[in-house]
Write a structure and sequence with these properties.
three-stranded antiparallel sheet; 6 helices; about 200 residues
Amino acid sequence: MHFCILIIQSMSLEREINKRSGGICELCSSSEDLKVYEVKPNKKSSLDEHIHACSTCIEQIDNAELTDANHWRCLNDCMWSEVVAVKVISWRMLSRLKNEGWPKDLLDMMYLEEEDLTWAQATGEGEDPDEKIIHRDSNGVIINAGDNVVLIKDLHVKGSSMVAKRGTAVRRVSLDHENEEYIEGKVDGQQIVIITKYVKKI
């Protein structure tokens, strides 16, 4: 039953995304090999947190080593999109490419609401690698924004009587960009700060 519901939701999401995009990549306008791409970290997995993107864009978004600066000249147009998720990806790619020169000029022209900018910055895109804070789980595995983790011990939540039980899965975590030992996520509907040495990435 749950499986059927998930399929229906996925099909509905795909139809809505296709309708919104007009059947083209919302980044480069290609009409070939389109997929629904989830912009992490997300909270509700809603339409607003997805974009329609071609395989070329997705491959380069997910793998910085494959980034072709010329392909992303399209950012000059899509950065003005009314779709926040498109603007978030545009900001991230411009930040990644800012050393090319022209992306820096576009980045300076961009405006994002504070909440949207926080979302855009959540992956650490564009930060100096030497200054970038790396979050690691109890096994030393890197935790990225939007990842899922599981608690490896009971944790008393500061300021409340709540105890987050060992084995609890915490989905779509966000990162503290000032402290490598802290991540955040929802447990029993409550947003809490979790110390990375007490979790394992799943």
